[in-house]
Design goal:
Layout lengths: L6 H15 L3 H58 L13 H5 L8 E5 L4 H12 L3 E6 L2 H14 L4 E6 L8 H13 L6 E4 L17 H28 L4 E4 L24
Helix pairs in contact: 1-2, 4-5, 6-7
Organism: Zingiber officinale (Ginger)
Pfam families: adh_short
Protein name: Short-chain dehydrogenase TIC 32, chloroplastic
């Protein structure tokens, strides 16, 4: 095993060896040279190690940069690929205001579930901008009232009502019926139903009706809500002559489903 020494130790050895030099100068010089070589080797090893760390850091930085550039390129390609214009001339790159420009929605009554934030809030705002009577169904009354106030600040003539509905309870079919009863009690027409509310990536849990939470909230609850309001949609068409619409929001996740499809027999299986 080779013992290494630092420069401060080397000076200490020199002082000790100076005494020995008077009696045995040749061996003293050899030992001094050996110690100096050891110190130099240690310094070179440290320098090499630091250089290696620097190179590793540089490589990692370059990898990170390339990943960022690749991600930006992929997102740009994705936006270009998905922004396909439909028969209307609009695509995913257009805004709600662009799509509804010039439309008079003053004769329409619209329900928007999950209108306290995000797409739901923007949908409610633009519909109100075009004159529609908007009914927002949302869990968080504080956030929804803030959305309503923001809309009224920019559109003083906006017609907006709020019916509270607990998003987590939306997975309960009982709460869907309660929401429907509150709306029907308002004795309003219904031209458009926008099923926007939903949950995503929630921990595995069963609803009060014993169904996996995400499937119950995003699918079953809106299926029931649509059926409970279907008669109102039909009668509104008969009375106003305006064709009704039902809009179900989804996501781009539909482009990459499991090849075997939904395993309905294992829907409530946590391990499935």
């Amino acid at each position: 095993m080779i013992q290494t020494v630092g420069s401060s130790q080397l000076w200490h050895y020199r002082e000790c060896l100076a005494r020995k030099h008077r009696t045995d100068p040749i061996s003293t010089l050899h030992e001094l040279h050996y110690r100096a070589s050891q110190a130099k080797a240690t310094t070179n090893s440290i320098a090499s190690f630091l250089l290696l760390l620097h190179r590793i850091s540089l490589i990692l930085s370059l990898i990170s940069l390339f990943c960022c550039l690749a991600e930006r390129e992929a997102m740009g390609y994705w936006r270009e690929a998905t922004d396909i214009k439909g028969p209307s001339g609009f695509g995913s790159g257009n805004t709600a205001e662009q799509v509804t420009e010039g439309i008079d929605a003053s004769r329409l009554t619209v329900i928007v579930t999950g209108g306290s934030s995000g797409i739901g809030a923007e949908t409610a705002r633009v519909l109100a901008l075009r004159g529609a009577h908007v009914i927002i169904g949302a869990r968080n009354l504080e956030a929804t009232n803030a959305v309503k106030q923001n809309i009224l600040n920019s559109i003083p003539s906006a017609r907006i009502d709020i019916i509270q509905i607990e998003l987590r309870l939306l997975s309960s079919l009982k709460s869907v019926r309660a929401f429907t009863e509150k709306f029907l009690a308002m004795n309003l027409p219904l031209n458009i139903l926008i099923n926007n509310a939903g949950v995503m990536y929630c921990p595995f849990k069963l609803s009060k009706d014993g169904v996996e939470m995400q499937f119950a909230t995003n699918h079953l609850s809106h299926f029931l809500l649509t059926n409970l309001l279907l008669e109102k949609l039909k009668t509104t068409v008969e009375k106003t002559g305006i064709e009704s619409r039902i809009v179900n929001l989804s996501s781009v996740a539909h482009v990459g489903p499991y090849s075997e499809g939904i395993k309905f027999d294992k829907l409530n299986d946590k391990k499935a």
